[in-house]
Design a protein that fits this description.
CATH architecture of chain A: Orthogonal Bundle
Largest interface: A-B, 26 and 36 residues
Helix content of chain A: over 70%
CATH class of chain A: Mainly Alpha
CATH architecture of chain B: 3-Layer(aba) Sandwich
Largest sheet of chain B: 6 strands, mixed
Mean pLDDT of chain A: 91
Distance between the termini of chain B: 29 Å
Strand content of chain A: under 5%
Number of strands of chain B: 10
Radius of gyration of chain B: 18 Å
Strand content of chain B: 15-25%
Number of strands of chain A: 0
Order of helices and strands of chain A: HHHHHHHHHHHHHHH
Low-confidence stretches of chain A: none
CATH topology of chain A: ABC transporter involved in vitamin B12 uptake, BtuC
CATH superfamily of chain B: P-loop containing nucleotide triphosphate hydrolases
Structural class of chain B: alpha/beta
Number of domains of chain A: 1
Distance between the termini of chain A: 47 Å
Low-confidence stretches of chain B: 234-243
CATH superfamily of chain A: ABC transporter involved in vitamin B12 uptake, BtuC
Oligomer: heterodimer
Shape of chain B: globular
Radius of gyration of chain A: 21 Å
Mean pLDDT of chain B: 91
Order of helices and strands of chain B: EEEHEEEHHHHEHEEEHH
Number of helices of chain B: 8
Chain lengths: 298, 243
């Protein structure tokens, strides 16, 4: 089988076409919003929000509402609650996150397992995603959400840049920092909602931070970091999906493993910060006998 | 004229600042001096409405919070993550954010303002450097350049001399004097009573309330210094709140 045939073969199936498109969209927006998580040190919050959408999903099912809307509301609500707990008590943010996300997650699981028998909801699909089951309307919803996320970031780019670098300075300059924070949290929740179907809530955090973290090691400015992250996210989504097709492995985890593999390569070989790059440079410079310097993290 | 009336800041159970009444005249370099925990940084954060505070702050008779475009704030250097993926020029351009306006991109005047701000602090050749590659003094100059790019009349600087080299300190004071001569006013939190205090026109001596405020030589009396620093072991931390 030639490589063209190898590439074309899965595309004979409409469900694979939808899966690929969906994976590309999700890979793109996860990489963009995930870059903000990295520079604002909010990766754990992203993880917390991804679990916290569960009860919103379940309640939307019960009342017959839109599951995307339900999940979005639960996601934003969880960030507000985390903020409220840590500003109104001496509980620190990480503890507040742990409490809120596990509370929401547990409630979500209880609700979904309760309604699982009557409706045709499958808990596993939400936890781990089911990209091969993406319907036309799911794909459309993902496309609309992705367009909204990308448009918002393009329009507010300079304000979000200022706010994410120096929140206090941005506030002093008169930017509405609370509103910008809410926008960022909403974008994160929307990204997670759009990604549920393809990767599931458990692993979505990897799609958000792995491409961004890889790009962070290789670039010097936020726009280039995001651009490279999008490229890496899209490539990982495609490669992961093909691997899943040909090796018959779960698609979400396949995408995640490819993403993380890219990070490991950058970590070892990044021109400026790579672990092995530094060893190599030291050896060339004649310091081979000295113990290796502390790992290339700053 | 910056008028502060009955300003107070409560932190948990303590009053970090209380009964602050001040009238700061323009065209001065004001040093805010006092022991650790005296509320120096708290004062400028409260004035700029960055933290909850009681009392009123007015600039030329109108509430300051309605005219934030007239002020520029330089946070402590340690307040931000210098590994952030941004170049020196990116950070200085942030100072143009409000001038550019919503949904717009930087134009020629913005790029000019960034260029001249960088020239002024002597950082032109570093414009494309990633900010993490700079020394502490260079980072502080970038922060000042950002404030300059805002083209504000009133500048508030929080501990700009912490961890900076002698050259940068001299450069910063030279720029402060130029700015004052151009009609701007600078309020500068200074971390200790070093030789640097000689560069200020006015001194605000603080210990959770205003101990003294006025021209340098009037403020530095033994009685005032005793009131501000008295009962403290050397330059040691005073961490409680004043009553």
């Amino acid at each position: 089988m030639g490589w063209l045939e190898w590439l074309a073969e899965p595309l004979r199936y409409p469900f694979m076409q939808r899966a690929l498109l969906s994976a590309l969209l999700v890979g793109t927006i996860c990489a963009i919003t995930g870059s903000y998580l990295i520079v604002r040190r909010l990766a754990l919050l992203g993880d917390a929000v991804s679990r916290a959408v569960m009860p919103g999903l379940a309640i939307a099912f019960i009342v017959g509402g839109n599951i995307f809307v339900g999940a979005f509301i639960a996601g934003v609500l969880s960030t507000a609650l985390i903020g409220y707990i840590h500003t109104h008590s001496k509980i620190k943010e990480d503890t507040a996150m742990g409490l809120v996300f596990s509370g929401f997650f547990a409630t979500g699981i209880i609700l979904i397992t309760k309604i699982q028998s009557e409706t045709k909801v499958d808990l596993m699909h939400f936890l781990f995603g089911n990209i091969l089951g993406v319907s036309e309307s799911d794909l459309l919803a993902t496309a609309v959400i992705s367009a909204a996320v990308v448009a918002t970031i393009l329009l507010l780019f300079k304000e979000l840049l200022f706010h994410s670098f120096d929140p206090l300075g941005a506030k002093a300059a008169g930017l509405p920092t609370e509103a910008l924070h809410l926008v960022l949290m909403s974008l994160i929740a929307l990204t997670i909602v759009a990604s549920m179907q393809s990767v599931g809530v458990v692993l979505v955090i990897a799609l958000m931070i792995a491409p961004g973290a890889t790009a962070y090691l290789l670039t010097r400015r936020l726009p280039s970091m995001m651009g490279l992250a999008v490229l890496l996210g899209a490539v990982a989504s495609l490669v992961g999906l093909y691997l899943s097709y040909y090796l018959d492995i779960a698609s979400g985890p396949a995408v995640v493993v490819v993403s993380i593999a890219c990070f490991v390569l950058a970590f070892l070989f990044s021109p400026r910060q790579g672990l092995l790059t530094r060893l190599w440079q030291d050896r060339k410079a004649g310091y081979a006998e000295k113990p290796a310097p502390p790992v290339g993290l700053r | 004229m910056l008028t502060i009336a009955n300003l107070f800041v409560r932190y948990r159970q303590n009053l970090a600042l209380t009964q602050v009444d001040l009238a700061v005249a323009p065209r001065r370099i004001v040093g805010i001096i006092g022991p650790n925990g005296a509320g120096k940084s708290t004062l400028i954060k409260a004035v700029l409405d960055l933290i909850p505070a009681g009392g009123t702050v007015a600039l030329d008779g109108r509430p300051l919070r309605q005219q934030l475009h007239r002020v520029a704030y330089v946070p402590q250097r340690t307040a931000v993550d210098w590994d952030y993926p941004a170049t020196v020029a990116d950070v200085v351009m942030m100072g143009r954010c409000r001038h550019i306006g919503w949904l717009r991109r930087p134009g020629r005047p913005d790029r000019e303002a960034v260029k001249s701000a960088l020239e002024r602090v002597g950082m032109t050749e570093y414009a494309d450097c990633q900010i993490g590659e700079l020394s502490g003094g260079q980072q502080q100059r970038v922060f000042l350049a950002r404030a300059l790019a805002q083209q504000a009349d009133w500048l508030f600087l929080d501990e700009p001399f912490v961890g900076v080299d002698q050259t940068t300190e001299a450069v910063l004071f030279a720029i402060f004097r130029q700015l004052r001569d151009e009609g701007k006013t600078l309020l500068v939190v200074n971390h200790d009573l070093g030789e640097a205090v000689d560069h200020y026109d006015d001194i605000l001596l603080l210990r959770n309330r205003v101990v003294a405020f006025g021209p340098r030589k009037d403020v530095f009396t033994e009685a005032n210094l005793a009131a501000a620093y008295g009962g403290l072991p050397g330059r040691f931390v005073y961490s409680g709140g004043g009553r």
